[in-house]
Amino acid sequence: MNFHVLTLFPNLVTAGLSGSMIGRALEKGSIRINAVNIRDFTEDKHKKTDDYIYGGGAGLLLQAQPVYDAYKSVLAGIGAGRKVRTIYLTPQGRTFHQGMAQELAQEEDLIFLCGHYEGVDERVLEQVVTDYVSLGDFVLTGGEPAAVVMIDAIARLVPGVLHNGDSVMEESFSGYLLEYPQYTRPEVWKGERVPEALLSGDHKRIREWRRQKAEERTRLYRPDLYAAYEALMQCRRDLLQNKLHHMDMAELICREKAELLYHDGEGTLLRERKSGTLMITVKSKEAGERILDAFLAQDGEIPKLLTAKQAFMEEVIEKRLHMTLSTCDVQAVYTRKEAPPIKPHDIRQLCTAHLEMVLQHYDLADEAYLLDRLSNGAVFGIFVENTLAGFIGEHAEGSMGMLTVFPAYRRRGLAAALESFMIHRTLQKGYTPFCYVVEENQASVKLQEKLGLYMAKEKVWWYENPHACGGEKISSKNNGCK
Ligand code: ADE
C-alpha cells in the first residue's frame, strides 16, 4: 500500500514513521511512504507557498497553486485513470476511528494533505479532497502529526505488516470491544496470581473469560462503544430468528464488516463498510418506506448494490433510491460445526498473476473487483496435474462464490471439492459459510444439498444502481454458487 503525503515538512512525516513495526514494514516493502514537499511546486520565485487571507483575519493560508501541482504530480506518479482517496486533515473533519482505518486499509494508494498556518485555500480543497478527517476536538499546529497517527493505524492493518495476523482480529476495537487484560510470566507477582481461567489450557473457557472481561471493561470505560456493541448484538440475535433468510446480514455483523444504519422490531438496514452495499429486511412496506426515508434524510449515499429480503420492496426501492431490480437468488447456509469431508486435492491460493484466467471464465464481476479479491487472497484454484482446472472465492460481503470448473474438468467432483474446502476455511475462521444460488440452477442447488447446506425458503432480491459502474455485476449465468 502506498501513502502519499503532501506537506511543507516531509521530514516530520518520515521521522514519525521510521521506527518499530512500521519502519520494518517500510524496509520489507509491504508499505511505502512518499512524502512530497509542497514547496517544491510553488511558482513563486521566493519559494513562497502562503499568503494573506482575503477579507482579513489573522495568519496566512496555503495557496492553491503549489498544493494542486503537488497533488497532480502524485496522480501522475500513480498513473492516471483511478480515483485516489485524498484526505485533508482538519479539526472540522469526521473523527477518525478504527472502522475508518479498516476501510482505508483496502485502498492501494492514499493521499494525505497536511495543512499549516490557518489552513488551505478552499478552491483547491474543493478540487482534490475526498475525505475531511479530524483526530479529535483539539487543534494541532499542522496536519503532519495527524497524518502520522492515521498512517500508523491504517498500515498495521495491511497484510504482512504485523507479525501475527491474529492480533488484528483479536484486539480492542476490531471486535467492537476494548481489549481484555493480558498477563505474562511469572505466574505470581507481588502476591497477585494470573487468573486461573488463563492457565487452564481450555480454549473455550479462555475465550469466554476474555470476552467477559472485554465486555466489563468496555461497559465501564467506553459506555458509548458498549451501547453500539449491544445494539449490534441485539440486531444479530433478531436476524438469526430466521437463520437461513438472514445469515448474510448476521454474518456481516459477525465478521465486523457491518455498519448498523437502522434496527428495530420492524426492520433492519445494514451497510457493508467497504463496498457500501446496503442490505435491508423489513416486516412491512410502510416500515421499508420509513427506513429508507430516514436513510435519505441523513444524506445516505446510494450504493452500487442493494439486497432486499422482501418482494414488496421493489416499488419502494425504485421510487426512493432509483435502483433497478436485477436478479433474485436464494441463500444457502451451512449450519453444522464440522466441515464436510474433503478428499485430497491440490487447492492453492491464487494471486493477481491469475487475473486473466479468472476473467476469462467468470463474467459476473469486472476486472477491478476480481483484482481486489485476488490481491486479498480470497480466491482459490484447484489444480489437476499442475494445471488450473477451476476456482472458488469469497465475495467482499463474505459469501462463498465465483465457483467455476473449466469445461474439460467437469463431472469429476471438483466443484464439490472446492466448495468443501471453502466451507472448511470459513468454519476455521469461526464464521458460518453461506452462498447465493439461482433457484433455477438445479445443478448448483443439488451441489449445495449434497454438501449439507440448507436453502432458505424466501428469496433475496438484488438491485443495481444504473448510474454506478464497476464492481460486482449481477447476472445469473454461472455454474455454481455465484
Ligand atoms: N490539524 C490540526 N488539528 C487537527 C486535528 N485535530 N485533527 C486532524 N488534523 C488536524
Topology of this protein?
Layout: E1 2-7, H1 10-16, H2 20-28, E2 32-37, E3 50-52, E4 60-62, H3 64-78, E5 85-95, H4 98-104, E6 109-114, H5 122-128, E7 131-134, H6 144-155, H7 165-170, E8 188-189, E9 192-193, H8 196-199, H9 203-221, H10 223-239, H11 243-254, E10 258-264, E11 267-272, E12 278-282, H12 285-297, E13 305-308, H13 313-321, E14 324-333, E15 346-349, H14 355-361, H15 367-375, E16 379-384, E17 387-394, E18 400-405, H16 414-428, E19 434-437, H17 442-451, E20 454-464
Parallel strand pairs: 1-2, 1-6, 5-6, 5-7, 12-13
Antiparallel strand pairs: 3-4, 8-9, 10-11, 11-12, 13-20, 14-19, 14-20, 15-16, 16-17, 17-18
The structure holds adenine.
Describe this structure in words.
A seven-stranded mixed beta sheet has the order 10-11-12-13-20-14-19, with helices on both faces. The protein has a five-stranded parallel beta sheet with strand order 2-1-6-5-7, sandwiched between helices. A hairpin with a 5-residue loop joins strand 17 and strand 18. It is built from 17 helices and 20 strands. The longest helix has 19 residues, at 203-221. It is of the alpha/beta class. The protein is globular. The chain has helices spanning 10-16, 20-28, 64-78, 98-104, 122-128, 144-155, 165-170, 196-199, 203-221, 223-239, 243-254, 285-297, 313-321, 355-361, 367-375, 414-428, 442-451, and strands spanning 2-7, 32-37, 50-52, 60-62, 85-95, 109-114, 131-134, 188-189, 192-193, 258-264, 267-272, 278-282, 305-308, 324-333, 346-349, 379-384, 387-394, 400-405, 434-437, 454-464.
